[in-house]
């Protein structure tokens, strides 16, 4: 069972890649390699275990940013606990509501900003009878700085013993989710759910250890967290961060990813930002780039193949003048939310960028249906990824089945959830599936 846990996979990858960068902050110069990250997580895990945290306990992480919050999340998983990152920017009422709905029995507050930490503790003080704060210092004790991992995996016997007890169906993390009918819950995804999601998504994206992932949007939400961070972590790739106060197209230029994960609004902003940057290119080069970009976009909208000298020159102008605007290596944007218009798709495709638009309930590990390249049909939200099946029930509600389906609500028995029926997820969406597997959602149910 332990071979199917996320900590086991991360340790194996750390041994394989050694001190390869995992988390890179383009502007601050912070770079954390895989072994350092694993050691940070193991130190956090030991602190949790020594604090009395048991397998299955929920632990809320408040005020964390960057690689430390991610390492603490993995530390919870290595200790058998279920991490829940409290969303950033919540007011006092929101913090209390989030902690209550997560059912976490313990929480940890980051100490990087004393003022923020104080405000979080004050907001959560009324819950002291039902949840206990664990000192952050216990999770940040000195970790080994070795550049390699011992062959026998015994660098911390206490943590290794706990990892061996982790089954693949034990919840690995909790994520906030709003159902189509407006209910709010925290979805518990198991180690198996997340590992299956990563294996399928990276296979379909043809992603590997050579890829860099990034989130150019305004927040690291549940969709970006699952589809980007876990994919980067478990595929052997790297995660590149860029300042949140920059425009999306600027963040892509700084992070230089090959795969970006964001929301629908950010995708639109990327296309608009790319056009704005093209308009700023001066002189003959600017006119040639603008002409080439418009020609490539029009050709794609018309469904024509590239042919002739003019198309070749246009392709070259785009390659030299447009690709660098989004970092030079971006090939795919994975976007949640409504379908991206054909005009925006064509503009981004002209720059060599494929678009995945995803119907993204966290309860299905963010991938109910994907609209992309050969899986597009008017009116459809796309087709399920391999391994996932979507079908309507007698009441017209779409059911979802497969290895990515939620294990249950965080802190509740699996058989309690009204959204699960014999391991089949009741999506809350009403619609149909055609003979080719394309999913259609009835108007007014999304």
Briefly, what is this?
By secondary structure, the chain is α/β, with parallel strands linked by helices. It has helices spanning 6-17, 34-50, 66-78, 92-102, 114-124, 157-164, 191-205, 222-235, 248-255, 264-279, 283-302, 308-321, 342-350; strands at residues 21-25, 31-33, 58-62, 82-85, 106-109, 132-133, 171-178, 184-190, 212-214, 238-241, 259-263, 332-336, 354-359, 369-371, 389-392, 397-401, 408-409, 420-421, 424-433, 439-441.
Helix and strand topology:
Layout: H1 6-17, E1 21-25, E2 31-33, H2 34-50, E3 58-62, H3 66-78, E4 82-85, H4 92-102, E5 106-109, H5 114-124, E6 132-133, H6 157-164, E7 171-178, E8 184-190, H7 191-205, E9 212-214, H8 222-235, E10 238-241, H9 248-255, E11 259-263, H10 264-279, H11 283-302, H12 308-321, E12 332-336, H13 342-350, E13 354-359, E14 369-371, E15 389-392, E16 397-401, E17 408-409, E18 420-421, E19 424-433, E20 439-441
Parallel strand pairs: 1-10, 3-4, 3-5, 5-6, 9-10, 9-11, 11-12, 12-13
Antiparallel strand pairs: 1-2, 7-8, 8-17, 13-14, 15-16, 16-19, 18-19, 19-20
Helix pairs in contact: 2-3, 4-5, 7-8, 11-12, 11-13
């Amino acid at each position: 069972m332990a071979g199917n846990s996320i900590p086991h996979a991360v340790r194996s990858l750390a041994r394989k890649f050694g001190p390869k960068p995992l988390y890179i902050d383009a502007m601050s110069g912070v770079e954390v390699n895989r072994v350092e990250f694993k050691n940070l997580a193991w130190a956090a895990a030991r602190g949790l275990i020594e604090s009395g945290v048991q397998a299955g306990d929920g632990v809320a992480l408040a005020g964390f940013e960057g690689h430390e919050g991610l390492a603490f999340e993995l530390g919870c998983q290595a200790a058998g606990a279920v991490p829940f990152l409290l969303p950033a920017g919540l007011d006092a009422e929101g913090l209390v509501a989030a902690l209550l709905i997560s059912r976490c029995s313990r929480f940890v507050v980051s100490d990087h900003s004393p003022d923020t930490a104080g405000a979080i503790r004050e907001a959560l003080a009324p819950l002291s009878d039902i949840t206990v704060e664990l000192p952050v210092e216990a999770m940040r004790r000195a970790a080994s700085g070795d550049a390699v991992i011992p062959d026998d995996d015994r660098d911390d016997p206490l943590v290794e013993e706990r990892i061996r007890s982790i089954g693949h169906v034990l919840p690995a993390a909790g994520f906030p989710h709003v159902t189509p009918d407006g209910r709010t819950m925290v979805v518990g995804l198991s180690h198996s759910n997340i590992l299956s999601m990563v294996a399928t998504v990276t296979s379909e994206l043809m992603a590997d250890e050579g890829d860099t992932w990034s989130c150019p949007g305004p927040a690291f939400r549940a969709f970006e967290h699952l589809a980007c961070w876990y994919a980067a972590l478990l595929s052997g790739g790297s995660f590149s961060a860029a300042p949140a106060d920059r425009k999306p197209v600027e963040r892509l230029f700084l992070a230089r990813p090959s795969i970006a994960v964001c929301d629908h609004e950010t995708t639109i902003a990327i296309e608009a930002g790319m056009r704005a940057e093209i308009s700023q290119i001066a002189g003959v080069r600017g006119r040639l780039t603008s002409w080439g970009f418009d020609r490539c976009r029009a050709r794609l909208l018309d469904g024509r193949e590239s042919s002739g000298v003019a198309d070749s020159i246009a392709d070259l102008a785009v390659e030299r003048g447009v690709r660098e605007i989004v970092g030079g290596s971006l090939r795919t944007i994975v976007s949640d939310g409504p379908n991206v218009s054909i005009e925006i798709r064509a503009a981004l495709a002209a720059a060599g960028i494929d678009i995945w638009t995803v119907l993204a309930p966290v309860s299905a590990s963010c991938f109910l249906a994907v609209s992309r390249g050969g899986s597009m049909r008017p009116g459809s939200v796309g087709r399920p990824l391999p391994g996932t099946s979507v079908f309507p029930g007698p009441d017209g509600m779409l059911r979802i089945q497969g290895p990515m389906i939620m294990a249950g609500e965080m802190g509740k028995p699996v058989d309690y959830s009204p959204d699960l029926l014999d391991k089949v997820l009741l999506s809350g969406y009403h619609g149909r599936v055609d003979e080719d597997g394309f999913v259609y959602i009835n108007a007014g149910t999304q």
